[in-house]
Design goal:
The protein is built from twelve helices and 14 strands. By secondary structure, the protein is α/β, with parallel strands linked by helices. The two termini are about 25 Å apart.
Length: about 350
């Protein structure tokens, strides 16, 4: 196992302290910080305004490669790329790059696996392994930032919608967000980063109290407890009424629009009855609904809704004054839903070892 310190795990103060232990002045920390987050250096060997001896000392103690690239997949339309990374402890995480016109959006992971157990999600089906560190979250962004910079492009948006429940790993996720938005670090606008949650009520209230500017998305997927309990086990702990109280609190505290994610599953949650219940639930709220035809997974027999059912659902929401968008699905031909590539690689390894 790699015992080198992940350089991205260090705060600026940690980095300053490390350099002091090496007998270096404080300004060296600022130089290295800029190399990491503004110039996206792939390795300490690239930090050419540091002395060769310091670079050698750092190379012996730290790494900017906290994971190993296992494989990548590219969609047939060339608009989506998924990367599977192997962590030193044997866990896998996935990161997806999606291209939309001028936008270059990253979908990044915050955990290895997930404890929420959503039945239609490949990550939820595999269970929870551990939280990612701040540095492991950051390294996903920096990996693709370097790749995009080679063709004169940059990361324009980030969604915390990969493997894991971001608010279940609250401290590390939000510390990474702070670094991603800090002017002296990655310097991405706060409103360009969306955090998705399945509905951890205490964390939503904390998020509201902290007056965060990063948008919040709620994976709702059903408008009644009877239906949501079947899809999202955490709903039994915090049912819809309790969740909606927290969402209203968030809107009151921040005056920010909330987004609801809704994976449309044929014959399950794409009925006019569910659309009407959702319309009643959200009528008059400062919100928007993202409608996403389901990305099928091997362990769930649900199928995506037809375009006709999607359109009927959307029209029914409009009757209640609820705005919605049908999200363009990316990477379906490479199974770009979080967790699917990891599952395939693990299954192949198991077969090879049998």
């Amino acid at each position: 196992m790699n015992t080198l310190t992940n350089l991205y795990d260090l705060s600026f103060d940690d980095l300053t302290q490390l350099l002091a232990q090496l007998g270096e002045p404080n300004f060296r920390a600022r130089q290295i910080w800029q190399w990491l987050y503004q110039q996206h250096a792939a390795d300490v060997s690239e930090m050419t305004n540091l002395s060769k001896s310091l670079r050698d000392e750092l190379a012996a103690a730290v790494t900017t490669h906290p994971f190993t690239l296992v494989t990548t997949q590219h969609s047939s339309d060339g608009q989506t790329k998924k990367a599977l990374f192997l962590l030193p402890d044997g866990n896998y995480i996935e990161t997806v790059l999606m291209q939309y016109n001028k936008r270059r959006t990253l979908c990044i992971s915050t955990q290895a696996g997930c404890a929420m157990g959503c039945v239609f999600c490949a990550t939820g089906q595999m269970g929870f392994f551990r939280n990612l560190t701040v540095g492991e979250i950051m390294a996903q962004v920096l990996y693709f930032a370097r790749e995009l910079s080679q063709v004169g492009e940059r990361v324009t948006n980030i969604v915390m919608m990969g493997m894991g429940e971001p608010l279940h790993n609250y401290e590390n996720t939000l510390t990474a967000v702070d670094r991603l938005t800090a002017p002296d670090a990655f310097n991405l606008g706060a409103r360009k980063i969306t955090i998705s949650t399945v509905g951890l009520v205490p964390a939503i209230r904390r998020y509201a109290d902290e007056q965060r500017q990063t948008p919040l998305a709620i994976s709702l997927h059903a408008a009644t407890d009877a239906e949501r309990n079947k899809l999202i086990p955490i709903n039994k702990r915090w049912p819809i009424a309790v969740l909606m109280d927290a969402i209203h609190y968030y809107i009151e505290k921040t005056n920010r629009r909330i987004t609801f994610e809704w994976a449309l599953i044929n014959g399950k949650n794409d009925t006019l009855e569910q659309a009407q219940k959702l319309g009643e639930l959200l009528r008059g709220m400062l919100c928007h609904v993202n409608l996403i035809p389901l990305n099928p997974t091997a362990a769930y027999n649900g199928m995506p809704s037809s375009p006709e059912r999607v359109e009927a659902f959307q029209q029914e929401l409009a009757r209640y004054g609820v705005s919605s968008t049908v999200r363009v699905r990316r990477g379906i031909d490479i199974q770009a839903g979080c967790g699917q590539l990891r599952d395939r690689v693990v299954q192949n390894l198991q077969k090879a070892n049998d």
